[in-house]
Amino acid sequence: MNEKNITELPINSSIEEAQDYLLINEPTVNLYPTLAVALGINEALILAKLDSLLETSSVSKEGHIWCKHTYHQWHTHFPFRCKKTIERAIRKLEKHGYIISITTFENGLMDKTKWYRIDYDKMQQLA
């Protein structure tokens, strides 16, 4: 177990250096309390992750940034949730218009990958 004290971490440290000070050396999961109260914990987790995925995506279609993910890929971000729970949360977010998803970017009828984006205008209604 790592016994470094977080107070010893220099302010201008890199992410790699900061990894040595984490409780467990693995990616963290963001949760926004306001979204969790308004939409549910699972939905808030998915929205926070999608927001971070969109920040690093370079795919722009129809004037929006998109990222693609399968339900299996979503599950790798949230292994503490079952796949069906993740699917239900995504469908709920789609139904209420918080996320927009399409499957038409890829060629091939057997491709089950969906492309996602957040409707940030709709999200502003929660604030």
TrEMBL record:
This is Helix-turn-helix domain-containing protein. It comes from Ureibacillus aquaedulcis. The lineage of its organism: Bacteria, Bacillati, Bacillota, Bacilli, Bacillales.
